Amino acid sequence: MEFLIFTLLYGISYGLLLFMLASGLTLIFSMMGVLSFAHGSFYMLGAYFAYAVTTRFGFWPALLIAPLAVGIIGAAVERYGLRSVHKYGHVHEILFTFGLSYLMVQMVVLIWGGRGRVYRFPEELQGSLFTMYGTTFPVYRGFIMLVAVLMMGALYLVLTRTRLGLVIQAALTHPETVETLGHNVPRVNMLVFGGGCALAGLAGVIGGSALSTSPAMGAAVGSILFVVIIIGGMGSLAGALVASLLIGVLQTFGVALDYSLSTFLSQIGVAVTEQTPGYPVLALTVSQVAPIMPYLLMIVILIFRPKGLMGKREG
User: Fold this and answer.
1) How far does Cα 204 stand from its chain's mean position?
2) Each residue of 108-127: pLDDT tens digit?
3) Cα 2 vs. chain centroid, distance in angstroms?
4) 176 vs 68, 101, 149, 162, 182, CA distance in Å?
5) Confidence of residue 172 (pLDDT cuts 50, 70, 90)
6) Are strands 128-132 and 135-138 parallel, antiparallel or unpaired?
7) Residue-number span of the structural domain to which 10 is assigned
8) Could you tell me the CATH number of the domain that includes residue 151?
9) How far is CA 270 from CA 258, 267, 275, in A?
10) Model pTM?
11) Is 310 within the bounds of a domain?
12) How many domains does the chain have?
């Protein structure tokens, strides 16, 4: 029971961190149809901005300043870069964001160097949130979950209870009509892209402190980020949430399990030795296979439900 509860909690906290990152890209894609390959780099940028602010002013100012700064940079990228290539189609957008990602990584290396940087959560987020069965659950894990839930609530309220949110939703399906009514759709696109980047920056502030801050962190989450988007369904925020939690729990349980097919066969009385056909595969533990589990799940989803779990828009 102890193993089940704590592994589930760790999996949910990791999944919610993934959602913080995936929600921004999902919002951008659902609004603009742009699959930004630079999203992981905005995540990295948020972590480095947080590191710079934390070393001077502390973590709490960084929690506000870093996402805001990343959002402003994202809005400028859309206004002065992405908008110019949007008319040429998706291939040009992908090439632009891919090149932008590489440029951002190199700029970070030039400014902060190639080695990783360390900044930690403040003292009030250190220690134990609660203890169960003699095992403690860290306060910062609870903080990650709280920030993600607050972000989800704020995003829901903005999209469903504000005029800007209504304009954004209307522009998803009827951009010409929205523009006819006097709304500046290109400006809305800029705000959406900047907001999506700000969400990536927020995830970077949290992830950079909880995990690590290095120039490679964007590439490390880039592939799993697209797996989340595909499994959940292109453009679906609810799907991104479900997929993030599913992958977070799946990988956390996978890493924690040190069992293999040979172990199972031995328990039911089947002798397995190094001479047994297929022994290298039978000897693979669940923890060794855990890194590829999300990709296996993605393949299964693409076979049986190509649009994803909750997808409505064709990729």
Assistant:
1) 9
2) 999 999 888 988 888 888 88
3) 28
4) 30, 31, 34, 21, 10
5) low
6) antiparallel
7) 2-304
8) 1.10.3470
9) 19, 7, 13
10) 0.88
11) no
12) 1
